[in-house]
Write a structure and sequence with these properties.
This protein is of the alpha+beta class and 125 residues long. It is built from 2 helices and 5 strands. It starts with 8 loop residues before the first helix and ends in a 20-residue tail after the last strand.
């Protein structure tokens, strides 16, 4: 059983001759140039995230052991230094290096009071 429609040999010959002209494979110079926003890991890791550029204060995401009703972020802490994958924050009297994956910049307009460090160890009493 033939799947092609019934064509005369003249129209079939015309289709075969015009096929390369009409359905030629796309060449690189025929395609439009579309700007790409895809960056390699090396480009991304070369500098800190743009959201943290110029941030004066930042929040730090809590560990996964926090309860469901606790806030996801603690802080605000002063940003001292910013590198490709780490941020140096003033946490109380100490300075800590924290990965940028756990840091979110503070975007508020009001005056910010830096937070005290989280309590560690046993509860008093």
């Amino acid at each position: 059983m033939c799947l092609l429609p019934r064509l005369s040999w003249v129209s079939l010959l015309y289709c075969l001759v015009s096929f390369p002209r009409v359905c030629r494979p796309h060449r690189a110079e025929d395609r439009p140039i579309i700007p790409s926003t895809i960056r390699s890991y090396a480009d991304v890791a070369a500098g800190p995230p743009s959201a943290l550029q110029g941030a004066e204060f930042a929040y730090v995401r809590r560990e996964s052991s926090a309860g469901p009703l606790e806030p996801a972020f603690r802080g605000t802490y002063r940003v001292l230094d910013l590198r490709a994958k780490t941020v140096k924050l003033q946490v109380g009297e100490k300075e800590e290096w924290i990965t940028v994956d756990r840091v979110k910049p503070h975007r508020g307009e009001a005056a910010v009071v830096p937070a005290s460090p989280p309590r560690r160890g046993r509860l008093p009493g």
